[in-house]
């Protein structure tokens, strides 16, 4: 009995296109020896659609296209994800009842079984963390069971299918149903008890996160072994977004044997139709195990970004891109990435010097362009900035040096890059990294603008690593000049930021990258209270992951440590939030990207009582001559 | 027995400030004859905090401040909202278990009763629509009951309190628990059955929405009457936000008698400490009924905006504001609103003419400034726009007339207003309305920029109405010149938008305002499929609310109707989304504001199969000479 995994690319919000692709795959499989054909979760509508779920016409359309797929099933048994609508019931919001549903069809009809109220199965565990909003739109099996006054266990029943002369009991799972470690209710062992189950099938729509596949292999492999049943994980590829945050879907669909062996692994970020026999899953030969690629390295980050940028350009119809290049690392890495995706002929690099830009960085920008084979033009900002200062002065408005820095940044992006991008027939990039975005070390309508912030989920040290990786592996040449890596990072907006004098950003990336990461990415978010406690306990480095001894070298006294901590915490929870509200969409890589993934309110800055008390104690000890711990 | 309602202002994310205020109110009540003192839902932490709930230190801080309030209770019985943490359990996301909780305290300790697992009560119904994300952070009573393998009814128990020598059974409700119409589980009748209940108390944190109080009075009054028990609704005032969308909280706390009479109604948008006796609630005299203000009119919109703008300025520390004034209605209304809030001396109006601006509108802008008593300066954009065109040309980049329109818009906002605002010591406003924001009829980094889009939840006709209202009621003078209302709305960015020739926006507001509202604000969202069906059924006007007969006057043929419909649908679901992602925060007024309230993905444009089939049929009928319906 042969099972095919259709690791297809899903176009979110386009049931017509997705169904058409599924119909093509079904036709392709019809005259093979495939018996069971699996599509991902929400393969008809896509998953991250915002409030499009509130359009009844869209739901009818999903049903229509789902029916076309069912009708086409023929002798194949097909399984796919779609929204399941119960037009007779409502959700808690008063809108029609919707389920995130698992459909199985054969011979033109849906397969159903006694004891379950619908001709489809329902997602049991619905994620409501990070980018996920399942409870906003869908009624879970848990909620349905409560409504029916039944234990949820009673609804977790296998689906009986007849394929290739055999009757199989299938455990139907949707994505989160397999990630049950944090839930009291665990669908796989319950299905096993209600079973026995011949095969678990997990239809997923699971976004890429650095290192997630490694974890998934541990979790799902153990799950198959514990259940002593094969488990097939079917994921889609493509990009989907919540507006502010764009996710890539890497596929990496996998078949696990009854002992948890990995017997089939689809390529990341690639459409594939792979097959494996049920017999091999049940009686795996040791030689048929396949290695699982590691997904924690800079190569995985590059693959995610390269795929995400390519797809986002395709989806928005962009074929030409303008990149402002300063000679610094962020814009160099952005230019190298886009040149690789679009071809150098479709890029226009623009260097926009002012009197504060050194010939060092100007020359680096030009060398980068030459190396990439991109056209590069110089459009200086001096004349326009002078005009702005003059016009302000005439109106009695005096601009401080700091204000003049922002004038320069806005002049570059909103005046030059936006106009140049329109004339070039495309858009311009936002080259911001996560470190500066965390604390708003960027100018709104200036360098914090653009159609996409492709690097804004990378800490500064990851941007450097990505630059090295592209030089070594993608271009196999020093495309990004070595000096771009070695000069001091600087905005070059004033004489105080003169790179030739070694002056630059106020951020000490080898420390602040890790401090900021603890604010944003820790599952249990760190705050000044935690950080100060770790500092005095001597466990700061192990908790945030920076180089041992670095904090005490940077901050000779506890008050130095505290003033740095408070400075950045104020910016992260204050002006940084205001700026992120108007930031471009961020391409997600990490376990927590800015935007819809990390939700935030523009609220007053707060320090906890514990923090304030600890701080007061430490400062008074310091001032009293008692050495700090 | 006297009950006090503390309709307090809550500062979101500042448990220290909120607790300090509660402690002051407790002190104030201690030496009065008040027995029971009620604070709103989440009165310690605030409610819309984004993912701050993921910081364990913040949760500890909320507990700390909650304990301070409990300790201060003394002989008062106090009830308040706070996060309830169970440090031994986890939520489904693996983080610590959190409840949206109702605390009652007396004599320095929490009041608890047998049969309930916590020393606080828990929200039963958690909203997950519009701006609400309750399931993301909190475990509901429904979920807890399922975990405990109990019917939820078993946990909906009255709280027994002893006050003024009496024992009362209190039905403890949190906000949505009272809005149970769309839920299968209805806490009030269940509590009554488990009761009898002497008094229902609903602690709320309920944002203002136009017309919501009218509905709430109907729902809550009926609820009290059906339960034959008094019901007290305690709401906070203030502003809270989700980043992209800012909500005002109007208070309007109300006490309902046992027959549903309104016996006490606190003022909207005002801190108040009101009291009423239990006896009056149980035996209301007909003369003690109070009138409930209508909240559907333009006066309510003004009150919401005036309060929201004032508080947002206070919270962000802004005391000076720059408004770009064009002579059109949007900027005139914005200027009049901010001048009222801040005083004219704290406003700087800037007119930024180009060669396309008529003397008509330039003069109107100056008359507005004179009427308001604001300083107004002219900063023309011609020289800078010319410089940009020249620089682009030198770089071989040709700008089309349409591109040159955007250059002007960006020059005004990002070059002039942003610099002027910094020099003036404040921020600049975004004057966009909801009609243009819906379809992206605005320029990113141009007129779609600013620190706050205060009018962006008003349709164009509401902006006009607000202008008239301010002239008549707020200023009692023609502050906004009559001609501002009568000239054709226009961006004046090209000769094609010459107001003196009667040329202006492509939007026909008396129709498109209502078309767009049906896309955005209908609970069951309208799409081209619905709209085309209504059009041919002759029910379009009644469904969308525009003037009868207007659509057929505007669109002589069905293909005219369709091409207009598709044009705006494409912009609403296409470029409009991309632009809104980077838009300023919107102050919410309606039942659906852009931002976090209306969540959206930047996805490909879609038309349903039903729509396409209907369209094809109608077009072929039209072309075949069959008259359209």
Description of the molecule:
Two copies of one chain form a homodimer. Chain A is built from 22 helices and 20 strands. In chain A, helix 1 (15-30) runs parallel beside helix 2, helix 8 (298-316) crosses helix 14 and helix 9 packs parallel to helix 10 (359-372). Chain A starts with a strand and ends in a 6-residue tail after the last helix. Chains A and B meet through helix 1, helix 2, helix 4, helix 11 and helix 12 of A and helix 1, helix 2, helix 4, helix 11 and helix 12 of B.
Write a short abstract of this structure.
The structure is a homodimer of 629-residue chains. Chain A is of the alpha/beta class.
Q: What keyword list fits this structure?
A:
homodimer; about 625 residues; alpha/beta; Nitrilase/N-carbamoyl-D-aminoacid amidohydrolase; Rossmann fold; 3 domains; seven-stranded mixed sheet; six-stranded mixed sheet; 22 helices; 20 strands; about 15% strand; globular
Explain the layout of strands and helices.
The structure is a homodimer of 629-residue chains.
Chain A: E1 2-7, H1 15-30, E2 34-38, H2 56-71, E3 77-90, E4 96-106, E5 109-110, E6 121-122, H3 134-137, H4 141-147, E7 159-163, E8 166-174, H5 187-194, E9 199-203, H6 212-227, E10 231-234, E11 237-241, E12 245-250, E13 254-256, E14 262-265, E15 272-277, H7 278-282, H8 298-316, E16 321-324, H9 329-342, E17 347-351, H10 359-372, E18 375-378, H11 382-394, H12 401-424, E19 427-428, H13 434-439, H14 460-474, H15 482-486, H16 509-520, H17 528-537, H18 540-544, H19 550-554, H20 558-573, H21 575-581, E20 586-587, H22 609-623
Parallel strand pairs in A: 1-2, 2-3, 8-9, 9-10, 12-20, 16-17, 16-19, 17-18
Antiparallel strand pairs in A: 1-15, 3-4, 4-5, 4-6, 7-8, 10-13, 11-12, 13-14
Helix pairs in contact in A: 1-2, 8-9, 8-14, 9-10, 9-14, 11-12, 17-22
């Amino acid at each position: 009995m042969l099972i095919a995994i259709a690791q297809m690319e899903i176009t979110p919000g386009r049931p017509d296109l997705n169904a058409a692709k599924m119909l093509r795959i079904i036709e392709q499989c019809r005259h093979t020896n495939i018996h069971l054909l699996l599509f991902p979760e929400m393969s008809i509508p896509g998953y991250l659609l915002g409030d499009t779920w509130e359009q009844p016409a869209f739901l009818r359309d999903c049903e229509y296209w789902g029916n076309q797929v069912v009708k086409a099933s023929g002798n194949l048994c097909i399984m796919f994800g779609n929204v399941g609508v119960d037009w007779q019931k409502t959700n808690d919001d008063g809108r029609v009842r919707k389920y995130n549903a698992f459909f199985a069809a054969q011979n033109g009809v849906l397969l159903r079984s006694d004891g379950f109220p619908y001709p489809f199965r329902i997602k049991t565990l619905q994620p409501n963390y990070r980018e996920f909003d399942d409870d906003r739109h869908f009624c879970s099996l848990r909620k349905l069971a409560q409504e029916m006054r039944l234990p949820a266990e009673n609804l977790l029943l296998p689906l009986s299918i007849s394929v290739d002369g055999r009757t199989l009991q299938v455990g139907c799972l949707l994505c989160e149903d397999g990630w049950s470690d944090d839930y009291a209710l665990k669908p796989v062992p319950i299905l096993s008890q209600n079973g026995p189950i011949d095969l678990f099938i997990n239809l997923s729509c699971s976004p890429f996160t650095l290192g997630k596949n490694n974890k998934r292999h541990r979790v799902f492999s153990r799950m198959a072994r514990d259940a002593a049943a094969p488990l097939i994980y079917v994921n889609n590829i493509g990009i989907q977004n919540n507006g502010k945050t764009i996710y890539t879907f890497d596929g990496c669909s996998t078949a696990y044997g009854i002992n948890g062996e990995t017997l089939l692994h689809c390529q990341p970020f690639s459409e594939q139709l792979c097959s494996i026999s049920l017999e091999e899953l049940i009686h795996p030969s040791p030689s048929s195990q396949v290695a699982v690629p590691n997904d924690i390295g800079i190569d995985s980050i590059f693959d995610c970004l390269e795929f995400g940028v390519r797809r986002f350009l395709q989806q928005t119809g962009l074929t030409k891109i303008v990149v402002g290049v300063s000679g610094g690392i962020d814009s160099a890495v952005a230019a190298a990435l886009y040149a690789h995706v679009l071809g150098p002929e479709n890029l226009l690099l623009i260097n926009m010097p002012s009197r504060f830009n050194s010939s060092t960085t100007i020359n680096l920008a030009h060398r980068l362009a030459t190396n990439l084979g991109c056209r590069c033009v110089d459009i200086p900002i001096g004349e326009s900035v002078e005009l702005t200062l003059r016009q302000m002065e005439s109106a009695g408005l005096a601009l401080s040096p700091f204000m003049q820095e922002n004038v320069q940044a806005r002049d570059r992006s909103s005046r030059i890059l936006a106009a140049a991008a329109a004339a070039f027939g495309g858009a311009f990039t936002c080259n911001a990294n996560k470190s500066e975005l965390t604390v708003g070390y960027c100018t709104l309508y200036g360098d914090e603008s653009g159609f996409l912030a492709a690097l804004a989920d990378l800490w500064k040290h990851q941007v450097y690593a990505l630059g090295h990786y592209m030089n070594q592996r993608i271009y196999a040449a020093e495309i990004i000049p070595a000096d771009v890596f070695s000069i001091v990072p600087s905005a070059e907006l004033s004489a105080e930021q003169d790179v030739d004098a070694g002056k630059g950003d106020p951020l000490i990336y080898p420390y602040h990258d890790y401090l900021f990461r603890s604010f944003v990415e820790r599952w249990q978010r760190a705050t000044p209270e935690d950080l100060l406690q770790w500092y005095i306990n001597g466990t700061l480095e192990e908790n945030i992951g920076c180089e041992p001894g670095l904090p005490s070298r940077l901050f000779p006294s506890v008050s130095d440590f505290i003033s740095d901590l408070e400075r950045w915490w104020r910016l992260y929870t204050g002006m940084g939030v205001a700026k992120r509200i108007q930031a471009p969409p961020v391409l997600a890589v990490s376990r927590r990207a800015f935007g819809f993934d990390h939700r935030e309110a523009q609220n007053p800055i707060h320090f906890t009582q514990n923090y304030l008390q600890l701080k007061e104690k430490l400062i008074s000890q310091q001032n009293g001559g008692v050495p700090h711990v």
